[in-house]
Amino acid sequence: MSNKLSWLSAAASLFVATSVLAGADNVAFPKDYKETFKVIAVRDMHNGGNAVAVVYANKIAVDSAKKGGELASGSVFLMEVWRAKMDGNDLARDAKDRLVPDVINVINMMEKRDGWGVGYPAEWRNGNWEYASFTADRAARDVSLQTCFDCHKTVGDAGFDFAFVVAEMR
Q1: DSSP string of 29-74?
Q2: How many helical (H) and strand (E) elements, i.e. helices and strands, does the chain have?
Q3: Degrees, nearest 5: CA angle 96-102-104
Q4: Are 18 and 102 in contact (CB under 8 A)?
Q5: How far, in whole angstroms, is CA 44 from its chain's centroid?
Q6: What pTM was estimated for this model as a whole?
Q7: pLDDT, tens only, 2-19
Q8: Torsion angle defined by CA atoms of residues 27, 122, 48 and 29, in that order, rounded to the nearest 10 degrees
Q9: Which residues contact residue 8 at a Cβ distance below 8 angstroms, ignoring those fewer than 6 apart?
Q10: 41, 77, 80, 168: most buried by Cβ count inside 10 Å?
Q11: 52: exposed, middle or buried (Cβ count in 10 Å: 0-12, 13-18, 19+)
């Protein structure tokens, strides 16, 4: 009987230890996001290139944002970054003077789960958020995610739940 308890205890410890390891591998790409997530914002991005960002949030993020306070564990944001369409040498613009999306360059994600942040040093840590980046084909990109951590650091009342769209979701 004690062998079974020892084995179960070891298995439970391994599960807990591996569930809080840091890294983009924690973030699974939601294959059905276009059907199950809500489009929160569409924005022109001139910082770092001319692109259009389409930001999606899952139901957990949307519902917890409406309640105020911290976003719930399980909140997920996904951002399609589209290359802006060109019109000759100029950027193509629609009737509202917005950039026109052409082709998806990358898809970036942030996901919050209890305990995820503990694997990072204090100067990086963003609460319990993890970040990942994917190709347009939804394959994981092997890139530094330091810019994600830097951009989403705690900001005023947003705390560690800083995402550019949270305020307008409330």
Answers
A1: P-TTHHHHSEEEEEEEE-TTSSEEEEEEE-HHHHHHHHH-SSPPTT
A2: 5, 7
A3: 120
A4: no
A5: 18
A6: 0.83
A7: 555 444 444 444 444 444
A8: 0
A9: none
A10: 77
A11: buried
Residue 124, both tokens: 């990086």
6: which DSSP letter? H
- 58-98 pLDDT, tens digit per residue, is 999 999 999 988 899 999 999 999 999 999 999 999 999 99
CA–centroid distance for 169 within its chain: 16
* pLDDT per position as a tens digit, 155-170: 655 666 777 788 888 8
Type of residue numbered 165: V
Residue 141, pLDDT above cutoff 70? yes
Domain made up of 21-169: CATH architecture = 3-Layer(bba) Sandwich (3.50)
What are the extents of the domains in the chain?
21-169
